[in-house]
Amino acid sequence: MKNVIVYSTPSCVYCKMAKAYFDEKGIKYSDKDVMVDIEARKEMMEKSGQLGVPVIDIGGKIIVGFDKGTIRELLEL
Q1: Residue 60: alpha-carbon gap to chain centroid
Q2: Looking at the whole model, is its pTM more than 0.85?
Q3: What angle do CA 57, 63, 23 make, to 5 degrees?
Q4: What is the pLDDT of residue 1?
Q5: CATH label of the domain that carries residue 43
Q6: What are the E-state strand segments in 1-77?
Q7: What is the sign of the dihedral through the CA atoms of 15, 18, 21 and 22?
Q8: Blockwise average pLDDT, block size 10, the chain, 77 residues
């Protein structure tokens, strides 16, 4: 299984949708709250060039936003 990291904030609806999707599919992921974790915020910006969330890292491939099709493709679901 590929390593999955979700960069999120507590108030982000799409972040919640992404995490619920991973939970529903039984996909383990690390959740990094960029609202309070400054290092995670820097990491997210370096990877994506974005401040918007969610930013999802699947095995080193970056998805900005909750894109089910790309997530399914990268996880081979």
Answers
A1: 11
A2: yes
A3: 65
A4: 73
A5: 3.40.30.10
A6: 4-8, 30-33, 55-58, 61-64
A7: negative
A8: 93 96 95 96 94 94 94 91
